[in-house]
Predict the structure of NADH-quinone oxidoreductase subunit I.
Amino acid sequence: MPANFPGSGLAKGLAVTLRTLTRKTVTEQYPDVQPELPPRTRGVIGLFEENCTVCMLCARECPDWCIYIDSHKETVPPAAPGGRERSRNVLDRFAIDFSLCMYCGICIEVCPFDALFWSPEFEYAETDIRELTHERDKLREWMWTVPSPPALDPAAEEPKELAAARKAAEKLEAEKLAAEKLEAEKLEAEKQAAAGPEGSGPEGSGPESSGPEGSGPEGSGSDSSGSGSRSGEEPTA
Ligand code: SF4
Ligand code: SF4
């Protein structure tokens, strides 16, 4: 063990100071400069209300029981005449108590309808713990701070939702083209039916053009002023 000589502590301290002076600073100037957080930061939970069907799965699975949901049932009239009335759940309250939440992410994992998302937002500290229970409006506001999902790997299989959407669009396009073709054929048939009698009727190829006047007895018949004998003329002596 090296012996400590007088002033060795001071020398060590100065060495540390000198080393640190030459290093790049890592101090974050928060709140003047916002930190750059990783995209998967677990800041707070955002709610996309339109996707929530009030299935209660998230509230049941939450280990801390800090999700509060209230709802009521509404009757929806039948979509077509003669159909049955349906009932659906309508969300009245969706709140999360962030003083109890342990940010495990189970609620987000189990939601079958993609209604809950992690947001990197973290500036929601309160001086009163009771104010850490945030209601649906606030959860919805946080939804707009959720980053977009990362791009797919170029070699990845196409998501089945995209394939289904493309198939539906192609089917619609084919139906539209078939309807347009049918309409065009119908119009063409109507046009031909309207123009039919004038173009190919009896006036064009009837007896006037090739009838008895053209090739009858007046033109080449026995009415001869040249060599034929006319039965009504008197013979000359
Ligand atoms: S993250 Fe975990 S503790 Fe927090 S609300 Fe969701 S399930 Fe509950
Ligand atoms: S699991 Fe999803 S859909 Fe069901 S109540 Fe929770 S947020 Fe709504």
Notes: Residues 62-64, 66-67, 96, 101-107 surround iron/sulfur cluster (ligand 1) (CB under 6 Å). Residues 199-237 have pLDDT under 50 and may be disordered.
